[in-house]
Amino acid sequence: MADLDRIRLAALLARERAEFAASHPRSLELSRRARGALLHGVPMPWMAKWAGGAPVFLAEARGARVTDVDGHEYVDVALGDTGSMPGHSPQPTVDAIVARVAGRGGITTMMPTEDAIAVGEELGRRFGVPAWQFALSATDANRFALRMARQVQRRGKIMIFLHAYHGTVDETVATLDDQGKVIARDGNVGAPVDPALTTKVVPFNDLDAVRAALAPRDVAVVLAEPAMTNVGMVLPTDGFLKGLEEACADTGTLLIYDETHTMSMGPGGCVRAWGLAPDAVTLGKALGAGVPIGAYGLSAELRDRVLADDEGDYLDWGGVGGTLAGNALSVAAARATLEHVLTEEAYASMLFTGQRYVAGVRAVFAKHGAPWHVVGLGARAEFGYTPAPHATGGDAHAAIDPLLDDLIHAALLNRGVMLTPFHNMALMGPTTTVEDADRVVGALDAIVGEIFGS
Ligand SMILES: Cc1ncc(COP(=O)(O)O)c(C=O)c1O
User: Fold this and answer.
1) Given CB 3.0 to 4.6 Å as the disulfide criterion, which of 12, 14, 204, 282 pairs with 141?
2) 3-class DSSP state for residue 60?
3) Residue 225 in contact with ligand 1 by CB distance below 6 A
4) Using one digit for the tens of pLDDT, what is the confidence trace for 276-286?
5) CA 116 → CA 200, 304, 403, 432, distances in Å?
6) Whose CA is nearest to atom 13 of ligand 1?
7) Domains of the chain
8) Residue nearest to atom 15 of ligand 1 (CA)
9) pLDDT band for position 305 (cuts 50, 70, 90)
């Protein structure tokens, strides 16, 4: 962004932060207190990464709105970084939670519930893979699916795409150095082993690199988002996913699509919308409207291989599973969310609002001559600071601009809009109205106008 006056941007950011501090005394007070009790002063370090300069403490959240402890209401398009894609506390999910916990009773036992079957059946219908298991997070769904894949394949390595994020899965906290060698990502905390031993890393949308990585047939499984959503948004180029599937088939490599974020694309995520054919699908976050749950579904063929494998211990010590996984509360929440909240009709409305938001952002950039782009993926959209969308995670990573991010995010907070921290991602839930989307666009209009002096 050579054309922009960085000193002026820094001054604008200082102005926005001062305004934030003046109008958020209670959040600041709680933040000071939290430093005495919580490592990093927050329950999770990323909760401190709000651009106003301090965490925004939550008071209430309903639908597409959150209210902080200082009484400010925001249009929330962060939606818990997808955990609340169904909107905050959707009534059918709340009713199912209450019915499970207070009505029938029983949060976790050692017994399955019928709700789990209903969730497995519905996910099977949506994503086209029939055999489901549960975890408590998408991270764990990925971990367990990777383990199963390595076990049945009797191969040691996995492959991911450069700058992908699949949760805190050890093997995936890997990147490439300048020479194309796999190394740990910067700041990888206490990495158990050198990720070069476990992982190959390849640029997205580069079929030659995919084929070269898979050719030695030492990769058990590729873990991929159908579109990258954690380094800006990188859509697959025409034919890339088909080519990826073919390269996997040619080399006997399994393919897992992580649809944790890309389920914004429709009821069956990108897998259904784009007719993809993975060996497994992983999910989490939004599935229980924020009640912790992860899920992984296997194709019939992979299911049969797992069932025929008598060396893997899936029951006890084998490294897959968890005491609370599949608990009665999580699956009750997921069933209600799938059956009554993230319905086909709800997706139709989310996709409509998503398109309107993308058109609005595009118009704002055009109006102010901002050489920036916006990419939509169903109900989610992300803008970036280059004229054209990125083709690889590497391009997207190189275009990250922390000063612009902070300025835009802080300005939006001060104008009643919550954009996803450390992303420029906006997500439209079933209760996000056209007016909400327009309000986000309006707030963006104000700050982009200031940035470009128009
Ligand atoms: C694509 C993807 N997969 C998995 C995860 C992990 O989700 P969780 O942190 O809820 O385990 C994330 C988190 O952002 C993600 O973006």
Assistant:
1) 282
2) strand
3) yes
4) 999 999 999 99
5) 35, 20, 45, 29
6) 167
7) 6-85+344-451 (3.90.1150.10), 93-341 (3.40.640.10)
8) 166
9) very high
